[in-house]
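Support case: user asked for a sample of complex input and structure output to validate their parser. Sending the pair below.
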Amino acid sequence: MSNRRLTFKKRLHILKHHFRDKKMAPAFAAFHTFLFTPDETTHSGAHVRGADDLKRTMNMVILALVPVLLFSMFNAGYQHYAAIDVANNVSRELSLWENFLTWDNFWIGIIKVLPLVVVSYGVGLGVEFIFAIIKGHEVEEGYLVTGMLVPLIVPIDTPLWMLAISVIFGVVIGKEVFGGTGMNILNPALTIRAFLFFAYPTWMSGDKVWVYEAVERTGTADAISGETVLGALAQNNLAELNYSVSDMFFGFIPGSVGETSTFLILLGGLFLVFSKIASWRIMLSAVIGSLVMGYIFNVIVDMGIITEYSNFYGLMSFEYWQHLLVGGLAFGIVYMATDPVTGSQTNRGKWIYGFLIGFLSVMIRVFNPAYPEGVFLAILLMNVFAPTIDHYVVKSNIKKRLKRLKNATILPKDSDSKAEELKAETV
Amino acid sequence: MALLSKKDANLIIDPLADNNPITIQVLGICSALAITAELKASVVMAISVLFVLGIGNVVISLMRNIIPSKIRIIVQLIVVATLVIIVDQILKAFAYELSKTLSVFVGLIITNCIIMGRFEAFALGNGPWKSFLDGIGNSLGYGVILIIVGFFRELLGSGTLFGFPVLGNPIAKTGLYATGYENNGFMIIPPAALIVVGIIIWVQRSRNKALIEDN
């Protein structure tokens, strides 16, 4: 058989077998499974093969993220030109076709958002490949989703080298030291964001980093501002806030790259729920949790305990349901809290886990003096507690069943010893 | 080595690597996390512990046969406390700024697990010369890790070493800062020390597989 007639797939198969026992084998195998279904089959016994393997699951999440990514690329440009208009005192009416979905906007998205995606994937997959070669195992798909989430949760002006360092840190310390994909305690994407936040706080907060070029123009004649809704609220600048509720819902506001459009995140969330990838229990309970905390703050303000002169007035008096529309809360709930590896596994545990994420997110958002956002800290905190929650849920379930067994009347049929046997078996 | 027999030399060399108090026994972590943001503080802390543990081990070893075992912890505490107060007063007299940086952590040498651990585990059962070597070895092992952690935390976190700017001036944007480099604020906060110590443990165990416990 001449080599010319072989398909690309077949050639890769041959290449893979050629490198079978070499050091680079995992890298070839990974590239191969990335493109094609593996040619290996099991050798013994009968096997049921589910269609929803890890790769399929990951691809569904990425599919749910694509609309968010596309929107964020347009929004990057829109916020840039809107901020310039504000600085020049030009009034601006949002029009979807005339000044949002334009090539000018999309071009800024291409030059600012795409490099973030490329660096995130390039560096993250590089680290995964190195670890796979050192450890001699297959490269796992774990980074596919993380690599897509990372560019969406950082400010648009994040320098690329900072992102690269954070990705290395997040993948190594957040995931590989625990044993790789599926073994991590903390969500790797949020570990990366937390590292960025604590290492380079000036690039992760304030009123400049959220809009393209705002940092470069600081101090010049055409300085522009990129204050987020939460940032304005935290400083009690209620007058400066001129975004309508629909702007916040559809996402025409400044913020981290992909977090602004609650509408598209909602669509993505519904898609994940109906394709049974993500847990609706976590999403629903997290929404309830954030509403409850927001409502408590509203009541406190209504009772007059917190007045306009308090530092917390802006965020506390913010309508409780609007907390879901601004900042990263919706994005975190839909794409981060539902991570099956780091979240709770039991159904009742998911309710508790989700509720506390929502509850703590709004609480941290209001009380964090340096940075008016808390969802990533809340999710990381609950990631740590998820195994504990599961442990107690399982334990209480065992207790309940034992109690039921104790109260149950076991009718002795043949002899009493038979009943004892039965009891021993059930326990 | 003519000065020391092989057995004695091991008393000093072992704690430096394969039986390190911080990375293997995981003792004395609190001070390793708290004061390693600056290299200078790490070095002074290492010297202080060297002084306290070296002399303390000898004193306890000399008294080992007359200490009633029921009150030995109290006697040990008195010895450490005396030595620590001497160190603290010397620092306050000659290096006041530094003693403010180290704040309570000089006083807390009293509760440093390494010191009580060596008194209990070694000095109570061995002669003064061996106890002295053991004290020196263990405090050097502690100091080495402190200095490594302090080196990386100060270099990456503040861009300085012993207070000298080695990477350029971050405000005037000279040296490395001209390329857009920025100091890593994460390295200044104590959790970073935990991660650096963790990485040192990781490197050490992957170089010497015998250290990995099987479970």
